[in-house]
Write a structure and sequence with these properties.
7-stranded mixed beta sheet, about 30% strand, 14 strands, 4-stranded antiparallel beta sheet, Rossmann fold, alpha/beta
């Protein structure tokens, strides 16, 4: 556990929108250097593992306000069939590729959970393979009835609130989830708990060392606190997953899109 300072005053935390301050890189413990400031948040960059992180991590109260005002659709869910044809085609190809990549690396693991299923693109692609016993969870409430009516088992819940038994899942998927999590260590501890022995995780996150991110610098479109808190390099992701009790099978950032994909297996003992 790396060093951080918890704000003791509830009033101060809510006023400042900060839950705690990171004094070191939360991945490797190196003292970071200020990269830039945006929206009253300071983003530091680790000189050792190149991890970019929000120094003053927002409180749950501040995050709730942000997502409510910035992403609310007033309870109306718009399915993908009503959106732009080009976007539908692009997402369809991407999720088909990821679905079959997951099938290939699952190696017979059938019980699969998707955390943050969003618009359900990947969940539907995975169902079409007929290889998994699937479940999806997401904070959003609007899509639940839509997807349940189409035969998908989905819930509006966080991972912690679902209270799964130990070792319940054999494969866990999260697309653009880790960068939003307030407490990374706590989240990954719960992921590891609900995974079976030799269970696997497949995460996709923004890649801070992708050529487009390096070229754009602080103006990179995926820097956006408090929505995105953590920005991984491949080196940082490998270190982070190993420290969380996982054997990294691969971690790469070789797409034309600025995404890092990691597949890792829960270690035993």
């Amino acid at each position: 556990m790396h060093e951080y300072t918890v704000l003791q005053s509830v009033e101060s935390a809510q006023h400042n929108g900060d839950a705690y301050m990171l004094l070191q890189c939360p991945v490797c413990g190196t003292t970071g250097a200020l990269y830039f400031e945006r929206n009253s948040y300071y983003l530091d960059r680790c000189p050792a593992c190149l991890f970019v992180y929000v120094r003053n991590v927002p409180s749950e109260h501040a995050l709730a306000d942000f997502y409510l005002t910035g992403h609310s659709d007033e309870g109306v869910f718009v399915p993908v069939t009503q959106k732009r044809l080009s976007r539908r085609f692009s997402k369809g190809i991407e999720n088909w590729w990821h679905a079959w990549n997951i099938v290939r690396h699952a190696r017979g693991r059938r019980r699969l959970l998707e955390i943050g299923y969003g618009e359900g693109h990947l969940l539907k692609a995975l169902k079409s393979t007929a290889r998994f016993d699937l479940e999806g969870i997401d904070y959003a409430t609007a899509p639940v009835s839509y997807f349940r009516a189409r035969g998908l088992r989905v819930f509006s819940s966080s991972l912690h609130d679902r209270r799964y038994p130990d070792g319940h899942w054999e494969f866990i998927v999260g697309f653009h989830v880790l960068e939003h999590v307030q407490h990374l260590d706590e989240f990954m501890k719960e992921v590891r708990r609900v995974l079976a022995d030799r269970g696997r995780v497949y995460f996709v996150v923004p890649c801070v060392t992708h050529f487009s991110a390096v070229r754009a610098g602080p103006q990179w479109k995926l820097f956006g606190p408090p929505g995105h808190l953590w920005h991984f390099s491949v080196k940082a992701m490998k270190r982070f997953m190993a420290d969380q009790g996982f054997r990294v099978i691969f971690a790469h950032c070789i797409s034309n899109r600025p995404h890092l994909t990691v597949l890792a297996e829960k270690t035993t003992g």
